[in-house]
Design brief:
294 residues, alpha/beta
Length: 294
């Protein structure tokens, strides 16, 4: 049986919890708890408490309150806060507990976090979340790496999750995630640069038609709309991830020009704070341009 805590209670954590509650015969034997730094913010506190109440989990006022006595801790924060999260909870981890680092970080960041966690007596697992958490929720594909990967796989299987082992060394799962993101998040950034400029020049229909003719296997209008939606809703978080991608490339002795450029586009569009709900590609492009050029 498992007792679970979550560090960070954003989209991914909420999706996992919602999914776990559908698992018949779930092995979770005590209320799930969470700690999120939003609890300290007058602006965001009530929204966090409402989310916890909706999913019937307990919101701790401190990392210690959330993690005390828990056998499995899922770290689900933004990439730029992953190492901080490990430092924040290390002193409160029970000996032998599993620390599942699900954050989108470079292998070197994961290795640094593992050192902190393992020195505290807990067991660290490198976890890579390999797809958007909706609609699959707890069934979103995960990769696991590290000496405790098999133990984690057994736990996640009991929780009804979709996990497989990528390797026995910390960083192997995150390497796959990071290098995949060069393409996925980079494609999003290229989409923004191409389509926004095409609309500004008044040639977007011709550009999209040319792309469609060159590669008919992709619905370029639909994919461009989707890529912009991802950036509008998640650009700030994706920028933090792409900074970790750039670290990964530099650690490998390679240039990081494309990844760093993607950071800029993701951040520019994400910080606009725009809603992308129920908008066509043209409407999304015009909305971004309106705010980007104002």
């Amino acid at each position: 049986m498992s007792t679970i805590a979550l560090i960070g209670f954003g989209e991914a954590a909420q999706a996992f919890v919602a999914g776990w509650k559908t698992v018949e015969g779930s092995p979770i034997k005590a209320p799930i708890t969470t700690f999120d730094i939003k609890i300290e913010s007058p602006v965001h506190r009530q929204g966090l408490l409402d989310a916890c109440a909706r999913l019937e989990i307990l919101c701790g006022e401190s990392p210690r309150e959330a993690t005390n006595g828990k056998s499995a801790i899922f770290s689900l924060v933004t990439a730029d806060r992953a190492l901080e999260a490990a430092k924040m909870v290390a002193a409160h981890l029970d000996g032998g507990s599993l620390y599942l680092d699900c954050n989108s970080c470079s292998p070197s960041t994961k290795v640094a976090a593992a050192k902190i966690v393992e020195e505290a007596g807990a067991r660290y697992v490198d976890v890579a979340v390999m797809a958007p958490v909706y609609p699959a929720r707890h069934r979103t594909p995960l990769l696991l790496a590290g000496s405790e990967a098999a133990t984690a796989e057994a736990l996640l299987t009991r929780l009804g999750m979709n996990a497989r082992i990528a390797g026995d060394k910390i960083g192997q799962a995150s390497s796959i995630k990071m290098l995949r993101s060069v393409m996925i998040k980079g494609f999003e950034a290229l989409t923004a640069e191409c389509v926004l400029a095409a609309r500004r020049a008044g040639v977007e229909d011709a550009v999209l038609a040319s792309l469609q003719a060159s590669d008919p296997g992709i619905d370029w209008t639909a994919r461009s709309s989707y890529n912009l939606e991802r950036m509008m809703v998640h650009g700030t978080r994706r920028a933090a991830e792409m900074e970790e991608v750039a670290v990964t490339l530099r650690d490998l002795g390679l240039p990081d020009g494309m990844a760093s450029a993607a950071v800029d586009w993701q951040r520019r569009i994400g910080k606009l704070g725009l809603s992308a709900a129920d908008l066509s590609l043209t409407q999304r492009v015009d909305l971004i341009l309106e705010h980007l050029l104002s």
